[in-house]
Amino acid sequence: MLKVNNVEIVYNDVIRVLKGISFEVPAKSIVALLGSNGAGKSTVLKTISGIIDLEDGELVEGSIEFKGNRIERMTAEKIVRSGIVQVPEGRGIFDDLTVIENLRVGAYTSNDTTRIKQDIELVLNYFPALRMRLNSLAGYLSGGEQQMLAIGRALMTKCKLLMLDEPSLGLAPLTAAEIFRIIKRIRHEQGASILLVEQNANMALSISDYGYIMENGKIVLDGNSERLAENEDVKEFYLGLSEIGDKKSYRDVKHYKRRKRWLS
After folding, report:
1. pTM score, two decimals?
2. Helices (H), ranges, 170-261
């Protein structure tokens, strides 16, 4: 579905943020992209979406393929029309529009009013909390409802690849768990591939098929999500657990050893 090949991104002609990133997202799969703040995760999504230039970023090397076609030089609009949509960190909803207006904005690529009504109903089936708020301004929704709206608006595009940037950010644990449960449903029922950027490694690995861990603009570890979750380095450094199960903060980890080998 998606292939990112040796991509390097430079900001302001000086700062190299991505340093040869390569990974794949197979069809109908959930792939987690993990790492701490500043690792370059959001930059990866912005590069795929074609909006990296809005932040004075430039792709200086590498390629991006979607369904066999090169897209790294496409405009953001064409990338959306090709079937890729991003839900940005912080949700990015239109606060001054109502819930129903936000959803209709997501359907801007379609003129089929019947299909749009069907898609709105589909979104409301996934997120019933939005049904009673259709005429409410989006800015007055709770954080969880806003995240539901952001994902719902993305679904209105009939995307084949849904990219989510920190969907659990700022949400209560129960709300975040519900969001992740619905993400699994969307993959299963809609057949969409999902690229999930998330700091909550434990939650992300629990629903994904495969994971990549980033550090300082590079991928330092990757593998099957179940195996990553059991990997001692990941448990200690990214999940905050020592070998005997005690919780640790990142600063307490004294002997983190980056594993270079690939996990199958």
Report:
1. 0.86
2. 173-190, 201-207, 225-230, 232-233
